[in-house]
Amino acid sequence: MNEDEFSEWYHRMLDENKIVDIRYSVKGMPVYRGMAMFIIREMQRYLEGMLEENGHEPVYFPVVIPEDTLSKEGEHIKGFEDQVYWVTHAGQNLLERKLALRPTSETSMYELFSLWVRTHNDLPLKIHESVSVYRYETKHTRPLIRSREFLWNEGHTAFATKEEALKNIEEIKVIYKKLIEGLLCIPVMVNQRPDWDKFPGAEYTIAFETLMPDGKTLQVATVHNLGQHFSKVFNITYENEKGEKNLVWQTSYGPGFGRLLAAVICVHGDEKGLVMPPKISPTQAVIIPVLFKNVDGTAIIDYVKKIEEKLASQGVRVKVDYSDEHPGAKYYKWERQGVPLRIEAGPRDLKEGKVVIVRRDTGEKKSVPLAELDLAKTFSEIEESMRTKAKKKLDERKFKVKTMQELAKHAGEGIVEAGWCGEKDCVKPIDEAGTILSISNEEHECAVCGGRGKKITVAKTY
Ligand SMILES: [Zn+2]
Prior knowledge:
Elements: H1 3-16, E1 20-21, E2 31-32, H2 34-53, E3 57-58, E4 64-66, H3 67-70, H4 74-80, E5 86-90, E6 93-101, H5 106-116, E7 125-134, E8 149-158, H6 162-183, E9 189-192, E10 204-211, E11 217-227, H7 229-233, E12 237-239, E13 245-247, E14 250-255, H8 257-268, E15 285-289, H9 298-313, E16 318-320, H10 327-336, E17 341-345, H11 347-352, E18 354-359, E19 365-369, H12 375-395, E20 398-400, H13 404-410, E21 415-420, H14 424-433, E22 435-443, E23 454-459
Parallel strand pairs: 3-7, 15-16, 15-17, 20-21
Antiparallel strand pairs: 1-2, 4-6, 5-6, 7-8, 8-14, 9-10, 10-11, 11-14, 12-13, 17-18, 18-19, 21-23, 22-23
Helix pairs in contact: 2-6, 13-14
The structure holds zinc ion.
Residues 421, 423, 426, 446, 448-449, 451 line the site of zinc ion (ZN).
């Protein structure tokens, strides 16, 4: 798909499936509708469960942050100042302190961390919240992908030692991979960002990204090693066993739920519409009674109810389509919504005590005795094959190149592996072709000057 076709398809998906409505009168702030909220809540529940099992406590911090708090860490405020929404008035009165709508919560939380952390017994401190954040994006906004208000989960920590902070980063990588590759069946690349592209105030940033059908990468989550940058300015210290005061080591991280939803839509979708991973699909199976004109359908309807009951008792989110539309129209409608399984039941199936099940992801159709109908296994087969298919699509769009000409050609098609010598002059043409996602320690000839360099990955990004 080229850029225009993809954009047209994406907006049609959002619209036809009532995912978001972009007609709300504040630009860059769409309305999330039923299907979006169902999927986001499933992601949220799953993620929060894993975080809390890992020792994170849920919190809720106010949406506003005073200007002096937000400005405390120099790099941090520099990175966000052009994107902050400010509350300046309360009623008719000008506020004494301007209040920012949180663009992220490091500063507001760490002000409290300095009160919460006293001794080594208060550590580790791990908290998380699922909230919306506000950033006045100046780049072209796109629903779910780049909005001025977006939903995410943010995790924040404080540790006694650097080693514990680094271990936490590894644990979060595993948790995010379970969310993205496990629950959502989306292949993900984990890249440490170049120094100039890290989170403002961090030592370094690790980004999780996937590839969209138009060849651009989409960053869906980040993890930051904050070192002691924030603990210094917010004076977050603990007393160790010997009574000495030390600064804590910190990390922060978050996936964006809107971007993850966009990735689910785009990575799995096809020309017929959405293809939903079973665990997050609002409807997991739809039953279509196959009725014939001039034939009494009572027995079929009873049979369909029996199937529905059986699936509901297995915990399947099931619907029956009783509408009087033509079967073809019904198939089209449910396929468009990405419902993982369609179950057809007609007079012959009833006679044989069978049902026909049709997979949305492959179109595979088979007849199964009703007594043996157990969808858990089928759903895990669907998940596995969705993962494999998506991974294959991503791998097909990885390019290893030597020259700048090849780099420029492939940067719009997928992820390019090339080399860069580290010189400013050589980064210019690379930057024009795409964004450097990561720089590795592996040796690789520079694509521009041919000199000794390191391996880099480059792509066009959202
Ligand atoms: Zn060079």
